[in-house]
């Protein structure tokens, strides 16, 4: 028997919500739309629902707008049926109900992220701990202390101890045998990197070594190291070394593939920083593609860095990419429409409303508050006085009558600039909310005091 769902809304969105539900032609549930007696659905609160909804009829579930504020658990207890938030955009209802696939659970992953503090010798212990905390918050699993050639690191052991006391797993990354020994004796979990000429270090410490070729591109050298560790029964991670583009990149990918074919179960590391750092391109896309290769080859460790300014969100991006690729591989599906964190510049569905739908909504407005939306036709600004459409925010200004109201003009300028950026790039724009840049920016809590467009009354009024 089909579930019966009551959808609560306001007068401005009622017609569009009804249309979307009809177009869904849902077979798994019956639906009814109830206008709660307010204009703007986004202004709905739990207290308002409790006061105004006298009878929910035979509904078995109540769905409220995604930006409805308040304690829905209390409403659930009050009405005796589940009360839940729907999507923030009503045009996303089909996806919410699985018509376009439910949002997947991205808790799983199988790639360990080593985040390198490349200038560790130049930081004091407190500075290292601060950087480590930021990397771990972004998704790092191991803090890699990067040593520098001909740069003393007298507080290396102290740094390892401090990181471990703080609960972090630690690796030491150096070409200097004494530094590797010092880090290992201090309790580092991993050492980067050992090769045929310094394998003796592994006999002195308990740290898990990352093995590399003695010479660039020499896979046989790496295989010999691996054979020795297999004979000793010691754990290790193998790294054939990823080379930058035009300096052996494709050949190095083939080395990883060859190693995986020869050793289907061995742990492998890939240092993706040689591509993200040494390619002037947005790292969200690079990390997505590289993590796709990593997922196919079942590589379970990566080393990443945030040295260049354009790589400042590399750890966050790697964390998102490993979760997306793991889920897509497990589900035997393409890594598309899984999660939006790697689409920082462009979005798959940037314009949820058509110009015709926006025009229809604009015709219903009876108050002076400005609403701003975008479609593939441009930027749209409207209130009771009519609908304006332009590509450039400057074109709106002469028609708004806000020359004498600096605060109002400033607000509209900010919002129209955001709308222009979203329109030009193909991003979602919601009035009174910052644009979403995915993993390119740290996640922040959504400000639930902001209202949704269309229909927000937080906007300033026309004169």
Would you tell me the structural class of the helices and strands?
A: alpha/beta
Work out the helicity level: 25-40%
Q: Main beta sheet, described?
A: 8 strands, parallel
**Going by CATH, what is the homologous superfamily of the largest domain?**
Dihydropteroate synthase-like
Domain Pterin-binding: 104-326
Region (Disordered): 441-463
Pfam family, one: DUF6513
InterPro entries: Dihydropteroate_synth-like_sf, DUF6513, Pterin-binding_dom
Could you list some keywords that capture this structure?
463 residues; Rossmann fold; TIM Barrel; 3 domains; eight-stranded parallel sheet; 16 helices; disordered C terminus; Dihydropteroate_synth-like_sf
Summarize the structure.
The protein is α/β, with parallel strands linked by helices and 463 residues long. The chain contains 16 helices and 15 strands.
């Amino acid at each position: 028997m089909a579930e019966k769902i009551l959808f609560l809304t306001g007068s401005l969105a009622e017609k569009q919500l009804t249309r979307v539900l009809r177009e869904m032609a849902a077979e798994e549930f019956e639906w009814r739309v109830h206008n709660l007696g307010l204009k703007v659905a986004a202004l709905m609160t739990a207290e308002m629902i409790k006061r105004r909804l006298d009878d929910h009829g035979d509904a078995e579930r109540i769905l409220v707008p995604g930006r409805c504020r308040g304690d829905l658990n209390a409403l659930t207890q009050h009405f005796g049926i589940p009360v839940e938030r729907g999507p923030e955009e009503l045009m996303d209802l089909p996806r919410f109900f699985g018509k376009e696939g439910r949002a997947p659970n991205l808790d799983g992953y199988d790639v360990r992220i080593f985040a390198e503090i490349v200038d560790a010798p130049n930081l004091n212990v407190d500075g290292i701990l601060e950087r480590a905390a930021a990397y771990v918050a972004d998704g790092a699993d191991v803090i890699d202390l990067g040593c520098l050639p001909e740069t003393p690191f007298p507080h290396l052991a102290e740094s390892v101890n401090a990181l471990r006391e703080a609960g972090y797993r630690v690796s030491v990354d150096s070409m200097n045998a004494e530094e590797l020994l010092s880090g290992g004796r201090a309790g580092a979990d991993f050492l980067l990197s050992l090769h045929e000429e310094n394998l003796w270090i592994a006999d002195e410490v308990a740290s898990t070594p990352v093995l590399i070729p003695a010479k660039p591109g020499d896979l046989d050298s790496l295989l010999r190291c691996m054979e020795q560790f297999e004979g000793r029964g010691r754990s290790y991670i193998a790294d054939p070394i990823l080379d930058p583009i035009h300096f052996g990149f494709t050949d190095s990918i083939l080395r990883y593939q060859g190693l995986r074919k020869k050793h289907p179960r061995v742990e492998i590391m890939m240092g993706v920083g040689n591509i993200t750092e040494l390619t002037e391109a947005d790292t969200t896309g690079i990390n997505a593609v590289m993590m796709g290769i990593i997922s196919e080859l079942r590589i379970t460790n990566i080393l990443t860095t945030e040295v260049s300014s354009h790589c400042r969100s590399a750890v966050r991006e790697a964390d998102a990419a490993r979760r997306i690729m793991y889920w897509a591989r497990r589900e035997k599906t393409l890594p598309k429409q899984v999660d939006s964190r790697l689409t920082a510049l462009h979005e798959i569905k940037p314009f949820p409303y058509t110009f015709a739908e926006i025009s229809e909504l604009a015709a219903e407005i009876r108050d002076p508050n400005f609403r701003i939306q975008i479609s593939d036709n441009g930027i749209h600004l409207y209130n009771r006085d009519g609908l304006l459409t332009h590509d450039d925010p400057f074109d709106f200004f002469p028609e708004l009558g806000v020359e004498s109201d600096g605060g109002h003009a400033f607000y509209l300028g900010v919002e129209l600039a955001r709308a222009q950026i979203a329109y030009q790039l193909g991003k979602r724009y919601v009035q009174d909310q910052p644009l979403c840049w995915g993993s390119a920016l740290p996640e922040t809590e959504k400000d639930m005091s902001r209202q949704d467009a269309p229909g927000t009354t937080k906007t300033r009024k026309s004169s």
